Each structure stands twice: as structure tokens, then as C-alpha cells.
């Protein structure tokens, strides 16, 4: 009898088999680097700021004179000039002198604090300061924010708006990132047709090519479609070989029926250096999943049912991507929600229940039910909840983690 | 004295002023529709499935004969044929007859259930069924999943993998979506330079153009850069007018110092049909934010500090996008986390504290501190937590909602 792997065994296999995968890199303009993954540690070539910088509008002074200042007894300074924003002032501040300065301006030599405009009055060449100022108050010292030589972005870090901002701040115009994962998509099944073919007999339109293509775009991969292959071993072998040679990962969907499944398994086995890593997973849905390695390429045989297919993509294929790209599993696509109603789980396998999120005072998750392969279930599901094989269900009011689809 | 608006007043103003905005539409291939917003209700032109469909591998039968079947006393059927997947069978099932059928196959006329392969034995032209089957068991009836004429995707619905799958299932090859929002980006300030200029004097590299460009990409908008404008009223008016004429929304960053701020405000006021809706918001950070309407275009004056600038984008500009695109504020970018340490809030304004998320057994949020304008703070922040003006802080262990940056 076939031995099914558990979901955590499958994760271990993916880690073991694909952790040493080496991705290519490319250099892209910083503007276009959003959501790409940094290919090396990047050090700051400059101090940020590279001068002592005022963080407010006000007056640069030596602060000691302000220590006893209050509303009745202001400290008085002679106004000797104004700092032109963007330039290093060509004057020095002496005891008892003040210079007007704006946010971002360079603090003149000799000054050790900037007093905020709100706490001053300027009159006839003199500045009255009504509050004490501490040394370095409202000054960002040279290199205080980012020191020259510090690592600002790490290898494998995903570049989002904040990281791109930091790279801009240290003067980077471009950045070396890992190449996007190339992923081939093949749909199989005698009954599957393209949307431009007539809907005859018991044919159905291809759904998985579309959902996988879209889901791959969301994961920043580069999807490539190889069309629909009938239940024909030779045809599948031909297209699969080409797809494997042209991509990092190949996804074959279909194969819920015994014949298509057998074809898919045999075609994968025929690939050069093919090793079948997983043939069946003890989960619901998605039991008939196949995972293989062909050389340094990964091949997935995904269930034909659209909901199961997308779910296996989100749960296992995305896991592989995280391993290949050295990404931590982050909470970006997860939401904590309270179950609106309970449900029973009795399969003895790890079960995944699709839920619809309802945004009220708190976020509610409503379990969805649908016959196997329901398209409508797919449309209504916001995400899924995992129930360990050892549990018999979940109760209304339980707090659950919903992984968004 | 200037009256600052609260954050909820600003939301109300945005709703009132921009709810009747009309977006253009365009028709795109379904493959390319990921993350676009559907421009009209889409009805199914076909039933899904458009035939009675088997959801398992097994045998199609009339089920009444199975009602008393068990391991000792199987119901026995004559095998009369096999359903070819993708075709409507040309035979009928009579009482006592069975036809082999695979997942996705069309249930033959006369049959009212499909018994699973696992519960049968086939021998010498006969099928032994060892378990009772209910009427319609393992059959998805014609139109049961999606009925012809049903709305499958609604106007304003964001098209993600599941929705694209549903549209594929009903045979759509393309879909009408709303045009992406066009957004112009202008950076201002005498001290701001591009990354290809030498870092002289007290100049600093432009950060906000990069962070806004990247954040706009993440929001599926079409960003356009208008470069850096010095503190020169005429120059700003010229570029601003052009940006407003070419975009739906214009973001001007800079203006933390009084002079730049005044310039920005005057330049916005000079636009045709300009109305200043908001001039200062009672929040921390981001107080000096300007929001205006010029005809049917929106113009934002954002703070110059990179962290404040990105925060105001996420909090108010994204809110405007949600209004323009009729999107509900969803939890896609939010995470519930437990505070690692507490912090005090004392400004009397609504405060936003940047936090770093730490993924351990549960998700922890560690408050970050940094001087105003810190780039490093930007880099370390996973998101922010809102503290109402009426609160004086949050305690360690408090459960907080973190909005991801």
C-alpha cells in the first residue's frame, strides 16, 4: 500500500532537497527593484546624515546659556546669520550667538543645540529663548542615523518601499537582485479546453492555468504557459521536458482521475535525473499531489480540482519558493480571525477548511462548504484554516490564523 | 490660529469630496487581470458544470439497489460501458446497470449516483457495490456550482487568483477593468539631489521619490516621476500644473521647513479650481500634511521626512485610493501582534508608533524609537500601531493591530 507523507514531512523533504539551490542575479534600477530580493549585503558608502543636521526650524546656539531660561527670564542671543538649507555655513557660532536654521539644515560649527522656533522670539537682531535646551537637542549627528560601512540591506531581504528608501538615502542608483523564479504551467486532461474553443460534450474550460498564472504573478515569479495536454503519455513527456528545460519549477495540474494521474507520474519519472520525492500527501484537500526533482528543477503534479490546485500551490509550492529564495514565512498574507461557526474534522489527515472573512468590529472567519471541485467555493473563500490531524474540529469563537488565498 | 483636522475628520472629507470620482475602464486579457478591479458585474453565460458531473472515480448507477448493501451482501450491477471523460455518453443506465466513470465525467442518463471505486469490486462484467449510495451522491448537478445568469464577479471586486479562476470557468477570455490610478510624484527642497549628483555641502539624496514610487507600485497604481524642484515658487507651479493635468493624483513631498511648506501651499492654491481641504492634521507624525482638490484631481503635500512621508501615504493617500476605487479597507496588510514593551503617548494628538514584528510562538510587536526623520527607523519598521488621542499609551502584552508598511 502507498505510504502518504504528512505535510510536515513534505516540508522537511523540500528543505532537504532544495536548500542548496543557487539563483542567478541581475542588476536593476532602484526604482524597479520593488518586491525583488536583494542578492548581497549592501553597506552604506556614506554617513547618513553626512553632516550634523537640524531636525526642526529654529536657531542654532551654544545651549549652556539657555539652562536657566524660562518665560520670565529668556536667554538672549545675537542673531549673526541664517543657514542656507543644502549648504555648509561659512560662519561659526560663538558663546551668545545664534543663527537661524531650518529643518534639514547643517548645524554651524560651534553650536551644540537647535532651539525650536516656537520657544523663541526674534526682535531687532536678537533672539530670545524661553526654554532650556539640552546639548545635541534637535540635532541628528553625522552618521547617527546610518554609519558609513553599516549594512543597510541584507542578502535575501525582500525590497519593499522602506528598504528602497534606505538604499536611495545612501546614494544607490541600482541594486543587484536575485532573478525571478521561472515557472512553467501545464494543464492536463481530455476534458479540458481553452476559452476560445466551443463548449461541447462534457468538456470544461481550463481554470488552473489561469489561477496558477495569477497566483505566480502575486508571488513575483515569471509564469509561462504550455497549454493543455490531452491524456497522452508521449505528448505530455514532450511538453514536460521542454518546460523543465526552460524553467526552475514546473506545475502540472490535472490528474485527479486515475488515468491522468498515472500519466503524469510516468511522464515525471521519464525526466532526466528524476526522483519522485512525494507521491500522495496525508492532507485534505490535495491528497494526490506529486513532488519530484529533476536535476536541480522541481516538478509538481497538482490536483485537477481548482480549489485543491490553488490550495496546494499556496501551501507547498509557495513553501518551495520561500526555500529557494531564502525567505522566512512571514505574516504578510495571514490574518487572525474569530470563527463564526465551528466545524468537525474527522479524516485523520491534516485538514484545511476554506473560510470567508467578514470584517465587523473584529474579523470573523466563516467556514465554507462545497462539493469537491466547486468553483463557487473558490470564489467565496478569503483563505484557509489548518486543523492538525490530531484535532477533531474547531469551536465557534476559536481564534484561528487564516492564510489568505 | 490654524485649526488642525483630526484623522477621522480627514477621512470624512476624503469620502465627501472624492466618492463621486469616475474612473476610466479598459478591457484586458484575463491572464493579465491579476490585481485589477472589475469594472462591471459579470454574469455566468453558462451553467457550471453544464452537465451532471461525477466528482469521483467509480461507477454510475441507479442507487436504490445499493440501499441495503454491506460487506457481506453487495449490490450487484451489470457493467455496460465506460464514460469517456470529456464526452456525453451515448448510452443510458437502466435499473441494475453500471458504467465506469472518472472524476469530471458526465453522468449517463438514468443514473442517479456514482459509487466510489474504493467501495466496489469489478469482476467478469459485473460490479459489486459494498456500501449504500444516496441519490445524487458524488454528482455535481448541472448548474449546481454556478447557475447561468448568476453574478460571479461584482463591479469593484479586486481580481485575484480565485476570481480569475471563476471567470475562466465561465469561459471569459478577457475582462473589463478600471484603469489604474495615475499618480505624479514631485520632490521639493533646495537640499535634495538625485543619486547621480555629487553629495556636496549639506545636500541629501532624494528618498521620497523612491519610497512613493515603490509604494505606488505595491498599490497597483501607475507612478510618474517629475523630479526634484528647488524652493522656487514659479518652478513648482509649472511642474505641479503639468503633473495635475497628466495624473489623477499628485504627491508633493518636502515642505517640513516653513519656506518649502509655504511654497507648496501657494503653488497648490494657484491651480485651477483649487480648494484646500486639509491644512495640518492633528496626528503624530505627519502634522504638516496638505490635502487639496483641483477640479477632479487630488493633490497631497506630504511631509519631507521619509518615515512621515511613507506613513501619510499609507494612512491617507491609500485611503483616498480605496475611496476612488470603491475598495473596502481590508485586512490584507494588517497583523495582530502582542506588544513586546509598552510606550507612552502624550501629544494629545492621535499617535502612530512604528514597530518591528518578531515572529516567535506568537507575533510580537516591538516599538521603535528614532529621532525625527531617521532613515534607519524606516528600514527597521514592519508597520505601525495607532493610538487614539484619548489614550496615554499602551502596555506590554496589549494585543495591537499592526498595519504593515
Secondary structural class of chain A: alpha/beta
SS field, number of helical segments of chain A: 7
- Uncertain ranges of chain A: none
CATH domain topology of the largest domain in chain A? Molybdenum Cofactor Biosythetic Enzyme, Chain A
CATH superfamily of the largest domain in chain A: MoaB/Mog-like domain
Could you give the distance between the termini of chain A? 33 Å
Tell me the β content of chain A: 25-35%
Q: Based on CA inertia axes, which overall geometry of chain A fits?
A: elongated
The CATH class of the largest domain in chain A: Alpha Beta
Mean pLDDT value of chain A: 92
Biggest interface in this structure? A-B, 103 and 103 residues
Helical percentage of chain A? 10-25%
Strand order of the largest sheet of chain A: 7-4-6-5-9-8
Tally the beta strands of chain A: 28
Can you tell me the CATH architecture of the largest domain in chain A? 3-Layer(aba) Sandwich
User: What oligomeric state do these chains adopt?
Assistant: homodimer
Radius of gyration of chain A: 31 Å
Number of domains of chain A: 4
What does this structure look like?
Chains A, B: One of its GO terms (molecular function) is metal ion binding. Two copies of one chain form a homodimer. The two termini of chain A are 33 Å apart. The first copy, chain A, is α/β, with parallel strands linked by helices and 405 residues long. The first copy, chain A, has helices spanning 7-18, 161-169, 208-218, 233-246, 258-269, 306-324, 375-380, and strands spanning 25-29, 42-43, 53-54, 58-61, 75-82, 97-101, 113-116, 120-123, 126-129, 139-140, 151-153, 174-178, 182-188, 192-193, 204-205, 222-229, 249-253, 274-279, 283-284, 290-294, 297-302, 334-339, 343-344, 350-359, 363-367, 383-387, 393-394, 399-404. Chain A contains seven helices and 28 strands. At the A-B interface, α2, β15, α3, β22 and α7 of A face α2, β15, α3, β22 and α7 of B.
